Amino acid sequence: MKIKVTSVYVDDQEKALSFYTDVLGLTKKADFSNGPFRWLTVASPDEPNGVELQLALNNNPAAKTYQQAIFQQGQPAINFFTDDLKADYERIKTRGAAFTKPPTETKGATLALLNDTCGNLIQITQLARW
Amino acid sequence: MTEETRSLVVEREFPHPPEKLWRALTQPHLIAEWLMRNDFEPVLGREFKLHVESPRWSGVIDCKVLIVEPNHKLAYNWNSQGLETVVTFTLTPTKNGVQLRMEQSGFAPDRQQNYQGAKFGWQKFFGNLEQVLTRVD
To answer: How many other CB atoms are found less than 10 A from the CB of residue B34?
Structure first.
């Protein structure tokens, strides 16, 4: 058994695809439509066959309530890991993303938070030691 | 009908004067060292945030100052993940220093996990506090 896909709710899949690829630098992996349903995933260019992140349309009012609540509480919907947060921060910021928390050192890690413009906070973490 | 809630109490004696402990409880740069990054001010009604920052979980705790009695008592709301509790610090001078009592009240019966988390957390915070007090003048 393997973990193949995880998902994040987004309020607009087209906007999300552009943000997660053009701004964050991930790569589009799967894109199938079935009527109004669109299965859309991205992957890391460093791990093209790694875990896929599904950009799922949030048209579920219950999920929306949850999404807005954790956003208000400052909780990220997803946490990416990197070996070079400073470089990623500069790159992503230059492409226009709004960071709600610039790289901040904490016990055992440095982390940053940004707004994905689709209803979520994203955390990027660099562990002090692997 | 009122719901029965639980309180968590953690107490420890510190071999330092109450004034020094009060500084650690009320100065943002010191609070950051033993508790969390914050924009605290010891002013009644002041709203501030504590920033949870970890590789596993990040978030914000919304707080509001309820009691400020210098060198004696400090209380604030502690609203985290939809759970509203109140944290009260009471300082009592002792022969060798000061006794600190922390009470966090308002854990609803269905919030057992938060209660256990807080229990674990405050033990850690008190340990950090002890180190901060030893380090600063």
So the answer is: 18
